[in-house]
Amino acid sequence: MNIAQALALRGEPESYERQENAWLLEHITKIDSFDLIMKKDQALTSEQEAAYTAALQRIEAGEPLAYVTGSQPFWTLDLKVTQDTLVPRPDTEVLVETVLKLDLPEDARVVDLGTGTGAIALSLASERATWKITASDVYAPTLEVAQFNAEKHDLNHVEFVLGSWLKPFGRQFFDAIVSNPPYIDAKDVHMQTLATEPRRALVAEQQGLADLAEIIVNAKKHLTVNGWVVLEHGYDQGDAVQHLFRQAGYKQVRTVKDYGGNDRVTLGQWPH
Fold first, then answer.
1. Rounded Cα gap, residues 262 and 82, in angstroms
2. What is the pLDDT of residue 199?
3. Is the distance from CB of 137 to CB of 115 less than 8 angstroms?
4. Using CA atoms, how far apart are residues 201 and 208, in angstroms rounded to an integer?
5. Would the pTM of this model clear 0.70, i.e. be above it?
6. Do 112 and 124 form a contact (C-beta atoms < 8 A)?
7. What 3-state DSSP class applies to 269?
8. Handedness of CA 128, 132, 136, 141 (dihedral sign)
9. pLDDT digits over 28-51, tens only?
10. DSSP string, 53-87
11. Cα separation, 87 vs 80, whole angstroms
């Protein structure tokens, strides 16, 4: 089997499946995906062909490409991904962009709750070397992946803390508290397509709003004057999350849309 034949094994030309095939071949052959077409007549070795077909079978069975390759691009970083972590989504980059646009001090203290791979915390750290950034997660194996990613990208000024939401932070204060918490209702039909990813990172009680509500309420005790909370949520939860912020006394509450035009990130400022 040559590269052209391998690329054509799944999906129509120009489809997302073909793009996934190219990323997979890049991972296996170490040939840049842009160069694959130039080398389309190059034959795969028997080992490469076996690895490629086995990987396609895993993807067809519903496993994310990132779990097959062990990595996922996010922002400007290439992040290690394991089955202990959620696969970072492009729409979460909207949260990173939103935080970077805030008028925060040059030495801002920022915490990313439920950091997973470290995607949000490490992206912010890569853009703001003077910020003091902390990343937390409740699950030790997940936090180890985030620490690995920090070391991989020489982002050594990020601190890592094990614990649930804001419980480990005692009397610490932050200029911004950010999170992409679980926000999917357990009854949501989309859960079927996410079955291979850790449920604890996806599902929340109260129609997906329980963790969002907990962070919004408890963040008030950990924010500096005019500090911000910035949260990712589901495409249909913008109004509900805005209500939670306003009910808790936040000001400047607004929702930011993702690249597909859906409500994705809501933020509020604590004025006290």
1. 28
2. 57
3. yes
4. 11
5. yes
6. yes
7. strand
8. positive
9. 999 987 899 899 999 999 999 999
10. HHHHHHHHTT--HHHHHTEEEETTEEEE--TTSPP
11. 10
- Sequence ranges of the domains in the chain: 3-61, 72-270
What's the rounded Cα separation, in Å, for the pair 47 and 176? 49
Are 94 and 256 spatial neighbours (Cβ–Cβ below 8 Å)? yes
The answer to whether the beta carbons of residues 25 and 33 sit under 8 Å apart is yes
CB-CB contact of 197 with 88 (8 Å): no
The answer regarding whether domain 72-270 maps to CATH 3.40.50.150 reads yes
| 69-73, 140-144, 223-227, 264-268: the lowest-pLDDT one | 69-73
The answer to whether 154 touches 179, Cβ cutoff 8 Å, is no
Instruction: Give the DSSP letter string of 93-108.
Output: HHHHHHHHTS---TT-
In the block, residue with structure tokens 């890592």: 160
User: How far is residue 151 CA from its own chain's centroid?
Assistant: 18
Euclidean distance between CA atoms 66 and 210, whole angstroms: 28
What b/e readout covers 69-97, taking b as 16+ CB neighbours within 10 angstroms?
A: bebbebbebebbbbebbbbbeebbbbbbe
The tokens describing 48, both together, are 């490469």
Which amino acid, 242? Q
For CA atoms 123, 134, 254, 92, the dihedral sign is positive
Q: What is the mean pLDDT of residues 109-130?
A: 97
Neighbouring C-alpha atoms within 13 Å toward the C-beta of 241: 29
Give the type of residue at 116: G
- Which pair of tokens denotes residue 157? 């000024």
pLDDT tens digits for 136-162? 999 999 999 999 999 999 999 999 999
Distance separating alpha carbons of residues 110 and 165, to the nearest angstrom: 13
Contact assessment for residue 122 and residue 131, using Cβ atoms and an 8 Å cutoff: no
